[in-house]
Design goal:
The chain is built from five helices and no strands. With about 100 residues, it is mainly alpha-helical. InterPro entries: Homeodomain-like_sf.
Length: about 100
């Protein structure tokens, strides 16, 4: 399901609740638990938004370009292993990354 479609379902659920329908009804219609709709409603009331919140976490080690390079390398050579991908990345960028990152 695309991001746009998920966002549309979120707004639809909020719309139903604004119309006076229950959270349980909205949850059944979008096929999620009622607690999910409740958190969505609380977020809408406090922030006037239903978009996903940015959460704190460890920053990405590799750039989107490097991530794409790894994905394309794996697709081009289906039999390649993770250590080979790590070595290919090092040869291309001279930056060491762990196997977990791949």
């Amino acid at each position: 399901m695309s991001t746009r479609s998920r966002l549309s379902l979120r707004w639809r659920a909020v719309g139903w609740m604004e119309m006076g329908l229950s959270q349980a009804y909205a949850a059944r219609r979008v096929n999620v638990f009622r607690s999910v709709v409740q958190r969505l409603w609380d977020q809408y009331q406090s922030e006037n938004s239903v978009s996903r919140r940015h959460v704190a976490g460890r920053p990405r080690v590799i750039t989107p370009e490097e991530d794409r390079f790894l994905a394309l390398s794996a697709l081009r050579r289906r039999s390649t292993t993770v250590p080979q991908l790590v070595a290919d990345h090092f040869a291309a960028s001279e930056r060491r990354i762990s196997a977990t990152t791949v």
